[in-house]
Amino acid sequence: MAGRGRPSRTTVYARLDMALTELNDRLGGLPNPREAQEIWDDIWHEEAHHSTALEGNTLVLREVRALLDQGRAVGAKALREYNEVRGYATAAQWVYGQALEPDAWHDGNLITVNEVRRVHHAAMTPVWDVAPHPDATDREGPGNFREHDIMPFSEGMTPPPWPLVPEQVSQWVMEVCALGKRIEAGDELEHPLPEELARLHNGFERIHPFLDGNGRTGRLVVNLVLVRLRYPPIIILKRQRSSYLAALRRADSGDYGALGELIARAMEDNLNRFIVPNIAGPARLVPLAALADDEFSLAALRQAAQRGRLKAVQGADGIWRSSRKSVEAYRASKHQRPVGRG
């Protein structure tokens, strides 16, 4: 008998595939950032916080929200840290805007070399203004490829010599565009989608095209690819830092499974936390995972559905579905006090 522990990687991939099908076939696809600003704002705050925290930024989410919403530097952190968040947030806003409304000058390809450089420029300029890289030449500022060789990483991987970077980035962009064409044509992929994305993300980090900011830029570029393919963006959480770095190390040797699983879980998490609950409407049936909150976990909702206390249906795919309206009715019934005998 199967255990009750963590779902297998195969299960995670299948669950994500069903969630994406549901998003596109039943719920109309990824919401437009202009028409669903609150959804994207929530993702924006979380991503700016967690992605910079992965690189050592110490601002907490409350401080990030104050900085991005009110322009207030709450706390007593170094100016560099505030500017790291500002830069990342600016780049992420541009990335999200590409979901359904690409720039007028966009050439129709999934991504271009100039866009990679643009993302880096947006993310790193505020940081560079107050704390430029000490070894940088005038030609290595934000948006420009490095002209220094990078020492081997502690895990053993050595980025290519700097004269090879422009050609390798161009080759990487061609691979991304080729993957996009296969996905849009419905062709069978060599690996599951999350592992194809893992391969590309790892490939970018192995090139390490910039003197600084490669991790932030790499995650932003992955999200640019995702939203242009009508997939939800991902957020690698700061508590996942060790797992993320370990998965990147495994990918260095051609094992993309752990990084692919991390990406798949992050895609599904954003679907369930931010997107599906807000575009489905109060009466529309959605997976219970999209209705879980601090009061009712997924396990609690599933148990209530199985016992008939929560109005829900189980589909042929085995997934229980309910609606926000039904969950609120269940919440109200839980909060009612029992009537005494008087």
TrEMBL record:
It comes from the Bacteria. Residues 111-268 form the Fido domain. SUPFAM superfamilies: Fic-like. InterPro entries: Fido (IPR003812), Fido-like_dom_sf (IPR036597), Fido_containing (IPR040198). It holds the Pfam family Fic. This is Fido domain-containing protein. It comes from Microbispora amethystogenes.
